[in-house]
Design a protein that fits this description.
globular; alpha+beta; 14-stranded antiparallel β-sheet; single chain; about 400 residues; DUF620; methyltransferase activity; Ribosomal RNA large subunit methyltransferase I-like; about 40% strand; 6 helices
């Protein structure tokens, strides 16, 4: 994995929720920035965009990162890449994997909404081929490669000053940034053991889980572990592993029906319980909720849309700040791979919203990812548990 021969780095615990964490400018890498937390880095991102918007070199008619050959666009591009890799790089699913398998749940003496959700999940497993091809859905391991295109679409700041009580002014800090392309490789051995390597814009993010510890490494922040219970990689449940996806919705409720595009869908909702959420708290940051929604086609039975919403409160002096991150993914192009239907492309739209209880100023940033799967292989020869051992420097003091 390329992490064993690195120099020693300081380690700290940091959640792997869809919050910002990204590359650091080499010129300021020695200024103690590695001690910053994810909410501090994402706040700095919004502040940088705001400061750049006030620069005389920006007329607000074109995105800042479209201007070549100056320090202003370099800062904007760096912040765009931070957001993209932090939010869409390797977020985890909202809830931990259950200890039981989905087919062991007996739909009796449970609310009707849960019973309906269980039936929909069984239909999903059948539609994806998992009930017929158990040897593949329960494969020893899986390998997948894919391509991504990421772009920051817009950043906006809303302020209530100067327009009277109850009114606000919304200022756009640029429209669409430069599109960045990349690729990724995913390995999985059982749902709780996985590894990811993602390269975008010349920057690499490596993450993994050995079933006990979830970790992430970047060259600019070193290696750190996730707090809380083990959770699967969100990229895997976007149509790559139907059985893991079904397990996450084992305790879901059916909210009803909704039309997504041309498809009538059943909507399933599952929330992280309070105990699991509290385990992810860190310092002044408190996770309020993390919810997952699945939209399953009534016609095909397949998962065609996935959305999770994550809310964190950061306690500060005078005014608590709230970060709400929402990621919605369209899942398309299901193809047969050894008897199992695997989604081969999709689009994710993420929104990061910052607001305070007393502050009149709010910030919102929107970004997109287009992803496609190039190859999927089950039961790769030679892949063992040794491939998922965390890097040694995660245990450094």
């Amino acid at each position: 994995m390329g992490t064993r021969a690195r120099r020693k780095q300081s380690w700290y615990k940091q959640t792997l929720t869809p919050l910002m964490e990204g590359p650091m400018d080499p010129e300021i890498q020695d200024e103690g920035s590695k001690k910053e937390r994810s909410w501090e880095l994402i706040g700095e991102c919004f502040r940088t965009h705001k400061d750049l918007s006030l620069s005389p070199t920006n007329n607000n008619s074109f995105p800042l990162s479209d201007y070549p050959g100056s320090n202003v666009p370099a800062a904007a591009k760096r912040q765009d890449l931070r957001l993209l890799l932090g939010v869409l790089g390797c977020p985890l699913a909202p809830i931990p994997l259950p200890d039981h398998q989905i087919h062991h749940i007996l739909p009796k003496d449970i609310p009707v909404q849960v019973s309906m959700a269980h039936y929909i999940i069984q239909q999903y497993l059948a539609a994806s081929g998992c009930l017929k091809q158990r040897q593949n859905c329960g494969a020893k391991n899986m390998f997948a490669t894919g391509s991504v295109k990421m772009v920051c679409c817009e950043t906006e700041i809303s302020t209530g000053t100067g327009l009277g009580k109850g009114k606000s002014m919304v200022k756009s800090l640029g429209r669409r940034s430069e599109e960045m392309t990349g690729c990724f490789v995913v390995w999985q051995m059982k749902p709780e053991m996985w590894s990811l390597e993602l390269v975008v814009g010349g920057n690499k993010v490596i993450a993994g889980s050995d079933g006990k510890t979830v970790w992430r490494h970047t060259s600019w922040l070193g290696t750190h572990a996730a707090k809380g219970p083990r959770r699967p990689l969100r990229r895997i449940i976007q149509g790559l592993d139907p059985r893991t996806t079904a397990s996450l919705f084992a305790k879901a409720q059916c909210l009803g029906e909704k039309r997504i595009g041309d498809e009538d869908c059943f909507v399933l909702k599952v929330s992280a319980d309070r105990a699991a959420v509290m385990e992810r708290n860190e310092g002044p940051a408190e996770v309020i909720r993390h919810v997952l929604y699945g939209y399953f086609s009534q016609k095909s039975g397949l998962l065609i849309y996935l959305e999770d919403s994550h809310l964190t409160r950061v306690q500060t002096q005078g005014d608590d700040a709230y970060w709400e991150t929402t990621i919605g993914s369209s899942i398309e192009d299901y193809r047969d791979v050894d008897g199992v239907l695997i989604a081969h492309q999709g689009r994710s739209i993420a929104t990061v919203f910052l607001f305070g209880e007393q502050s009149m100023q709010h910030s919102r940033s929107r970004m997109e990812e287009f992803w496609s799967i190039d190859d999927v292989v089950f039961n790769v020869q030679g892949l063992s548990i040794d491939s998922f051992i965390p890097p040694a420097d995660i245990f450094d003091p």
